[in-house]
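Dear colleagues,

For the upcoming journal club I promised to circulate an example of a predicted protein-ligand complex. I picked one with zinc ion because it came up in last month's discussion. The inputs are reproduced below in full, followed by the predicted structure.
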Amino acid sequence: MCIRDSPWSLHTRAPADAGLTHWLLSTAALALGLWLSERGTCAWGRCAAPDCHRYFIDTGRRTPQRYCTPRCATRVRVAAHRAQRAAGPEESSGAASR
Ligand SMILES: [Zn+2]
């Protein structure tokens, strides 16, 4: 498979004795590589949650994706909210006046 007018191209070549599983995996990897290359350099990333080590594929929403799942985003947002409340009323009143 080749993209015309591109300085590079992605290929897959299965060994002669490759089975169906190998062919399916190499085809899926090629399709993923093409999909990632067409979407630019920020199509994937590492989750921004401090205790999460997962990676994600950005699904193309308007804002760049920062977390692997909504669950990680919610967990970080709740922790920030709790830290702000624990910091005291002067911190939260300063944040509310912005
Ligand atoms: Zn995560």
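Two points we might discuss: The pocket of zinc ion is lined by residues 47, 49, 52, 54, 67-69, 72 (CB under 6 Å). The helical segments are 20-38, 70-87, 89-96.

See you all on Thursday,
B. R.
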